[in-house]
Every structure is written in C-alpha cells, then in structure tokens.
C-alpha cells in the first residue's frame, strides 16, 4: 500500500521504496534527501547513475561487495 505519511515510533518502523515527483525530471549525479525531524535533520546521499556508470559499477560490484564484507568481518 502507498501512504502519503508514515508514523515511526520506538516499536514501529517503515520499510520500502520512496517515490516522489520531480518537476522537470531527474538529473544525473549526486543528490541529497533531507529528512526533517522535530529536533534535527538527516541528510541521506544518493547518486543517479548514467548507463555507463551503472555498467561500470555492475562489473565491479562483486569486488566492492567483497571489500566491504572483508572490512566489516570480525577477525577470528
């Protein structure tokens, strides 16, 4: 189901994709999603890739994924 608003409490959360209208269409590059809270602001970075960037990233994803896994795996 789609909602215009959601309520998040200490015992409740929300998960899913975010859709929003962008007047004039999307622009490639680095962007920020600003989430305003009562006492602060969270800035979430995201990037809209060109087809070429997506192809390059897809080819290197396994290497990147392995590097992240290795970096955050606790030593034995």
Spans where pLDDT lies below 50 across 5 or more residues: none
With helices defined by DSSP (H or I, 4 residues minimum), what is the helix count? 1
| Total beta-strand segments | 2
How would you classify the helix and strand content by structural class?
Answer: alpha+beta
Round the mean pLDDT to the nearest integer and report it. Answer: 85
Give a short account of the largest sheet: 2 strands, antiparallel
| Relative helix content | 25-40%
What is the radius of gyration computed over CA atoms, rounded to a whole number of angstroms? 17 Å
The coarse overall form would be extended
What order do the strands of the largest sheet run in, or round the barrel if closed? 1-2
How large is the share of residues in beta strands?
Answer: 15-25%
End-to-end separation in angstroms reads 44 Å
Order of helices and strands: EEH
How would you summarize what this structure contains?
By secondary structure, the protein is of the alpha+beta class. Helices cover 29% and strands 24% of the residues. It has one helix spanning 51-72, and strands spanning 29-37, 40-48.
